[in-house]
Write a structure and sequence with these properties.
439 residues, mainly beta, 18-stranded antiparallel beta barrel, globular, disordered N terminus
Length: 439
Amino acid sequence: MIFQRTRYLFTLLMIVALPVMLLIDLAGEARAEESEAKETKFSIKPMVSVDARYEDNFYLTEDNEIGMYTYVVAPGIILGMETPKLKVDLSYTAEATFYDQQGDSSAPAGQKSGSDLNYLGHLAALTSRYQLTDRLTIGLDDSFYLTRYPTYYERLSDSTDRRKYWINRLTPMIYYEFDTRFSTGFRYQRENLEYIDSSYEDSTADRFYFDFIYNPSRTITLDLNYNYWTRDYDLSPPSDYDTHQITLAAQKRYKYFTFDGEAGYQSRNFDDNFLDDANNFRYKFSITAQNPPPPELRRVMGEAPERARSHIYVAAERTLNDVGPTYTGERFTLSAGHVFLRKLLTMVRAYYQLSDYDTERGLTPDGSLAVRDDDTYNFYGRVGYLITKKMTVSFTAGREKRDSNLAGFDYVDNYAYIRFDFNYDINSRGGYSEEAVYY
């Protein structure tokens, strides 16, 4: 009970504090000299994406493959405000998604067919930071997604579901900087995951993050992180659990190269006494090469740089999943790209993932009982053209394949899509990025 009251009190405090600080800051700006008032910066960025996609195995099934055309129209806007003490960014995108099923085959059991899948998705995010003192900063982040894509709740997802759901993550935080080299931070995140018109189990998660950060130089960052979270399902199975995780992360930046690494230990305890606890060594290591090189500025740990004209990115990572049956996901990623003549965008990207389940069992093709073990790879190539620095059209083609030791879990999906992107920044604070972040 004390734990719950403290959690909700802290969240309420952060929710109330930020708007109050915003009003104080705006009032201070109104009373400031004209030269100081000019330091307030606003940005408005309307944007829209339109794409048409075809997959020859939309439901990712082993047999009875069904082709599907998918059309997406996604208008959005990003609003930003920045003062000497406050920075707020608010983004929203509506994803109107339409499906056109090919052939007369019925959708797999539990899945909707063709136009019955049509929906209006919502992607919204708030990021805010307020500097209370020279050393103390508070913040509030929130993200909301209504979608059919499992990667929004599980980045290393092994799921083939097309069920609609929404997920919201509210994250108040506080950071204290002892000096230019040492800082510490605390974050709390409340996550709600709810499926729509589905028998899948809804869940909530409470996460606590503690960071101790050390910057021995402008190009080196060290972060010792302790992370504790619980996940509670409305019904069981799956089983509720709590997880402890400690990680040491490091980043070293050279002119053209950035090396990122983190390694740690996870311990997961299930409420179901019939399940063995899961213990896992987790890691993520990556090397990024860019030309031209990024600015020589101190970067927040985990923050991805904007892609340069040329890039190569290589990564390996291993961690436990968060939602559903427990498995260890291990992924190896390669991405490379170049912009020719400042107009022609080219890129290839591939990943290979091993998903090693702890308890999920099934029948193998020869009829024996085994614990599930999946291997998945995804490869695609992309060619695009910069019509202007604000307008891009691109074509992407790729293939995804999964091999499982259990019968009925294999699939092959060939896909291709054409996409148009447009964004326009009014009174922008920053420069234009010709390409999106690639990892």
